Amino acid sequence: MKIATYNVNGVNGRLPVLLRWLEETQPDVVCLQELKAPQEKFPEQAIKDAGYNAIWHGQKSWNGVAILAKDFEIKELRRGLDGDPEDLHSRYIEAMVNNVIIGCLYLPNGNPAPGPKFDYKLQWFERFTAHAAKLLEYDLPVILAGDYNVIPTERDAYKPERWVEDALFRPETRQAFKNLLAQGWTDAIRKLYPDETIYTFWDYFRNAYGRNAGLRIDHFLLSPQVNGRLKAAGVDRAVRGWEKTSDHGPVWIEIED
Fold first, then answer.
1. What 3-state class would DSSP assign to 149?
2. How far are the Cα atoms of 29, 52, 53, 98, 209 from residue 71, in angstroms, in the given order?
3. Which of 2, 65, 239, 252 is most exposed, with the fewest beta carbons within 10 Å of its own?
4. 119 in a known ligand binding site
5. What whole-number distance in Å separates Cα of residue 180 and Cα of residue 62?
6. Known catalytic residues?
7. Superfamily of domain 2-255
8. Positive or negative, the Cα torsion across 40, 41, 42, 48?
9. What element of type H or E holds 116?
10. How far apart are CA 1 and CA 97, in angstroms?
């Protein structure tokens, strides 16, 4: 089973790119982030015509997450996280697909830091970490995929010294990611490629993509029950070079059924 995660940076504005990528790569399951579309504006018919079922959690202008599946039923388990009834951001959706729990997340950016947005990022991270711990208790295969807005280590950033004060790379953010991994999750990309320079995001400015001046901020975390089934992983880097594309590239893994 091939599972992908892709921050589309506007599902309607980037729809031709998304549909082309789906056609060329044919992933079985896709987690999308940053839909930037209210619930009723999600392009359900176009996605269905491409061969995919979909569930989504939209929000006008910002955020938004979705799970697509080809030839599999999507059984929605939850949308949103516990712990803050006033948090109306559409940042998490979870489903059972082919006997695997898939959590699709768009973790807050948190800039400028320090400040209220960074506080929200860390609070959301705490709520997500608490939910992740509950998922591990089920003793089921779980995959948590999405845009974490976390640069885990210096290896994951071009010129990391430029990111020291950024919310994606501040010590508090990296420690929160370490705390999450310490529950028993495996970073799929780093399991297979422990030392390679791999990026998933390239800014639109200063020819970042052409210079390969990127960041690795889109991650797959695997529970112990699925970790041993990991066969392959990678980034569809070329998609970032397409016309009118997202500033993220799709990331994917393959697991044995």
1. coil
2. 9, 7, 8, 10, 34
3. 2
4. no
5. 26
6. 106, 147, 248
7. Endonuclease/exonuclease/phosphatase (3.60.10.10)
8. positive
9. helix 116-137
10. 10
What is the distance between the alpha carbons of residues 2 and 64, in angstroms, rounded to a whole number? 22
Q: Examine the pLDDT at 257 and tell me if it is beyond 90.
A: no
Distance (Å) of CA 137 to CA 17, 80, 130, 184, 223: 38, 19, 11, 11, 10
Contact 173, 107 (CB under 8 A): no
Residue with tokens 């400015």: 205
- To the question of whether residue 149 is assigned a binding role by annotation, the answer is yes
103, 136 contact by CB (below 8 A): no
Question: How confident is the model over 130-186, as pLDDT tens digits?
Answer: 999 999 999 999 999 999 999 999 999 999 999 999 999 999 999 999 999 999 999
Q: What is the pTM of this model?
A: 0.98
Confirm or deny that 203 is annotated as ligand binding.
Answer: no
Alpha-carbon gap, residue 140 to 68, rounded angstroms: 20
Q: Is 247 annotated as a binding residue?
A: yes
Check: CB of residue 11 under 8 Å from CB of residue 36.
Answer: yes
Cα–Cα distance for residue pair 54/93, rounded to 1 Å: 11
Listed residue (49, 55, 78, 71) closest to 2, CA to CA: 71
Q: How far is CA 69 from CA 222, 234, 246, in A?
A: 19, 19, 21
d(CA 144, CA 133) in angstroms, rounded, equals 12
d(CA 33, CA 146): 7
Residue 95 pairs with which residues in a beta bridge? 76, 102
Cα Rg of the chain, angstroms: 17
